[in-house]
Known about the structure:
Chain A is of the alpha+beta class. Chain A is 48% helix and 19% strand.
Amino acid sequence: MIEKYSILSPDFERDAPRELMLLSIISQSFFQPFSLEDNLLVILTALTSGSGVGFNRAMLFLKQGDRLRGEMWLGPRSAEEAGLIWEVLSTPGIGYVEIVEHNRALVSKNEDTLSARLKGLVYAADDENALIPAYAACRKEILLVSQASTEPLVDRRFLNVIGVEQFVCIPLLARDDVVGEIILDNAITRTPITPADIKLAGICGLMAGNYIYSATLHRKLLDVEKMAAMGEMAMFVTHQLRNPIVAIGGFTEQLLKPDVPEEKRARNLTIIRDEIRRLEDIIYQMGHFLKVSLKEPVYFEPGPVIAGVLESPEIQTKARGYGLGIKLEPCLPEILCDPTSFGEVLRNLLDNAFDATSAGGTVSVRGYRKSPAAFVLSVRDTGRGLTNPDKENLFRPFFTTKEKGMGLGLPFIKRVMDTCGGKIEVQSRVGKGALFKLIFLCRERELTP
Amino acid sequence: MKKKILIVEDERTLGLLYEEELSKEGYDITAVTDAEAALAKLAEQSFDLIVTDIRMPGKNGIELITQIMGLRKDIPIIINSAYQSYKEDFMTWAADAYVVKSSSLDELKSKIKQLLGD
C-alpha cells in the first residue's frame, strides 16, 4: 500500500506541538509566492501566535549595507486587540495564505503608530560598543534583557519605542554573517519569558536568517538575469527603433526635394505615419514589459476577468473568422494572481493563438480544477504549432516567431506566473497547433452569507 | 550599361527607399526581402554588388554571405545593419564594407561608388 502526503500542507495542525507548527510555518516560507516582507511577517506571526505560550509581539531589524534598520513589527496594541488576533490565528483550518492576508490588514492598521517609530531606529551593524538591541546582532549573541530601564547598555530611544521591561534579542545569522535581528516581548500578557521560549525562538532565528539570506541571493540572481536581458534588449531595441527611424528620415528627405509629385508626397506621408505608429507600438510594448514590479498576488474569482477579456472589442475583432470555444467549469474557485496581470496574460495567450492560426481555425479556452488546490486555464489553437527549438526559446525575451512580434508576450506571462507561484506547460507539434496551460494555486470560493 | 545591385532587406519600406534612392544614382536595383529570394535571383542573373541586412527572418545575412562565397567569390558585398556593435566583425564575415543604417544614405552611396570603382 502506498500513501501520499503533500510536502506543503495548506493549513496547519492546531493539535500539533507548538514547536512543530512553528517550524512548519517557517520552513514553508521558502516555498511561498509572496514577497520577502510578507514571508517575514508570517515568521513573526508564528513567533507571536497563541495566547499563554509564545511571545506577544515581535519586531524585526534587517541589515542593509553596514546598518541595522528597524523594518516591521507585529502584534496587538492592546489586550482587547490581542484577544481578537489570537482568536483569528487559532481558527481551525487557517493556513499560510490566510495568515498573509491577516498580516497585511494588521500592518496597514499599524502603519502610523509603532511601525513609523521603529523605522526611525538605525544602528551600525558592526560596532564593538553597540547598545542593545544592536549589541546582540554585533556580538552574534541571544540576549534576554530584564529591568531594561535600569540597564545602561539599552539604547534609550529603543526603550521608548518598545516600552517594556523585559524582551529577548535574537540575532538572525546566515553563514556566520548577520542579516538582521528579531526582538520579542510579552507586552500584553506580561508573562515572564522562559528559557524554553528563548531556545525555540533561537532556532526560528536561525531558520529565518537562512531564509533572508537565500531570498536576498535569489533577488541578486534575478538582477543578474535582468542585466543580461537588458543587454540583449539594448541590441534588440537598436534594431527595432532604427529601422522605422531610417525609413522616416529617408522618406522625409525625399519630400524636402523640389517638385515632388502629389502622388509620391501622399505615399511618403503614409509611410511616415505608419512607421511612427510602429514606433509608438514598440515603445508601448517595451514600457509594458519593463514595468519593474508586478502587483502582489491575491485570491480572486477569475470568471468576470475571463469574460471581460473574451468580450473585449480587440479579442472579438481578432476572433472574426475563427471558431472560439469557451468551456469553464461551473462555480470557479478563487485563484492566486494579480487580477489585472491575469487579464493581460489571457489576452496575450489569445493574441498568440489567433496569430498562429489561419482563418477558419479554432481557438478554445478552458478553465477547470486539476486538483483541489490547482486551477488550470488553457488556451488551445489549431495553428501552425511550434518546433522544438522554438519551444526551448519561447520564454526568452525578444524571441519571436511572428513577423512583427517583439517577443515580449510570453516572457511577461512567465513573470506573472512566477510571481504568483503558478506554472506554465506547453504542448505543441509542428502543424498540430499548440496548447498553453497555466496552472494557478486556488482555493474554494468564500461563500458570503 | 547600368551596374546591377541586389538589395536584401526584410523591411519592405527600407527596400523601397534604397531602390528609389540608388536608382537615382544610375544603378539598376533589384530588392528582395529574404536570403532565399536573394539566392534565387543570383541563380538567374548576375549582379555587380550586393547590399544585405543581417537580421532577417529565416536565413540571416551572415549565412547568406557564406553561401554567396561558395557561389561567386567576386561580388563585392556591403552589410547594411542597424547594429553598430557588429561593425568590428564584418571582415571576418568576408564582407567588403559595413554601413550602419542611417536616414542619410550618403555613406551607403559612397561605399557603393568606391567598391564599384565609379
